[in-house]
Amino acid sequence: MDGPGIGGPAPPTLRRWSHRSADPISHLELSCGHIAVGYRGRPPEADRCEDAALILELGVAGCLLAVADGMGSGARAADAAAAIVDALASRAQTLAEEDSPSRIEVLDAIEEADRRIRDWGVGAATTVAVAVIDAGSYRTYHVGDSEAMVIGQRGKLKWQTVSQSSVGYAQASGLLDPREAMVHEERHLVDSMVGMPGMRLEVGERRNFAPRDTMVLATDGLLDNLQREEIVEIVRKGPLDRAAQLLLARSVERMEDAGDEEPGKPDDLAFILYRPHTTTRKPR
After folding, report:
1. Is residue 65 classed as helix, strand or coil in its secondary structure?
2. C-beta separation of 160 from 150 below 8 A
3. Which among 4, 5, 100, 227 could disulfide-bond with 10, CB atoms 3.0 to 4.6 Å apart, if both were Cys?
4. CB atoms within 10 A of CB 151
5. Residue 14: what are its φ and ψ, rounded to 5°?
6. Which residues contact 131 (CB under 8 A, 6 or more apart)?
7. What is each CA distance from 45 to 75, 267, 277, in whole angstroms?
8. Nearest-CA neighbor of 220 among 36, 85, 71?
């Protein structure tokens, strides 16, 4: 963290990953909890990634986490993903100085990125998943098929967002099981994206973490290559940096050597793992 400026408070800790600048730090211990990050381009170009990620510390008990996935190989896909994290990062000081992180600031940042991307006029778009964590509670915001989920230490998938796609809705309603959804021919047809007309931004209700819960934010580079039960088993316990390394290694292995029983898809990949400290203040 940088030191305080003259006559002012220390700036908030901020780390971002995009095609313009990939922060080398992959594991952080913040006052709000433990964080680990996985980020790489699709094989074989590991250093070129069109996804983006952001970690922003908000005071002593909060943080903002975000991942974004530029649309396919479309025009300025990497720029679109970066535009989301840049818009959120530009509000870092305001968000960090608030007593409780404001939904308005997050909504404004996503809408600003949406306008900026559409103004390019090249058909660029991106997904986004954001989690705002404050004193042991969390709220999510998402557009498209990047997802957030919360996993208990005993392996229960306690909560997850629903991908904005026909396959995502069918899976959420029980019409498709997760394995069928992974190989469905319409899996990658997304109904809503930042930068496209009719963007739908879904805001979750505020929920509380239980002790030893783990949150995962991920783009489809992870979700299209590992089954949900694989992700749950890897992250539910043990050090987060080790879990991140294993998720990354298995995803790349699946991308490079997919089979009929374990499908895989070469893709850019970004994910953030978060686990609160064992002792956490109650939400205000």
Report:
1. strand
2. yes
3. 4
4. 26
5. -140, 130
6. 64, 65, 66, 138, 139, 140, 141, 148, 215, 217, 274
7. 18, 10, 36
8. 71
Q: How confident is the model at residue 257 (pLDDT cuts 50, 70, 90)?
A: confident
Q: Say how many C-beta atoms besides its own lie within 10 A of residue 44's C-beta.
A: 10
Mean of pLDDT values over 22-28: 78
Task: Give the separation between CA 33 and CA 274, rounded to whole angstroms.
Answer: 7
Q: Model pTM?
A: 0.88
Q: What is the architecture of the domain spanning 14-276?
A: 4-Layer Sandwich (3.60)
Question: What average pLDDT score do residues 209-222 get?
Answer: 95
The radius of gyration of the chain from alpha carbons, rounded to an integer in Å, stands at 18
51: left (phi over 0), alpha (psi -120 to 50) or beta: beta
User: Given a cut of 80, is residue 229 above it in pLDDT?
Assistant: yes
Asked whether the beta carbons of 101 and 132 are under 8 A apart, the reply is yes
- Residue-wise pLDDT tens digits, 128-152: 999 999 989 999 999 999 999 999 9
Length reported for the chain: 284
Of the ranges 7-16, 86-95, 102-111, 116-125, which one carries the lowest mean pLDDT score? 7-16
Nearest-angstrom CA–CA distance, 229 and 177? 12
Burial of residue 21 (CB within 10 Å: 0-12, 13-18, 19+) is exposed
d(CA 214, CA 191): 28
pLDDT for residue 161 is more than 50: yes
**The Cα angle at residue 28 between residues 27 and 30, in degrees rounded to 5:** 160
Output the six-digit token pair for 259.
Answer: 């089979």
Give me the residue spans of the domains in the chain.
14-276
Is residue 270 within 8 Å of 69, Cβ to Cβ? yes
Lowest-confidence pick of 95-99, 200-204, 253-257:
95-99
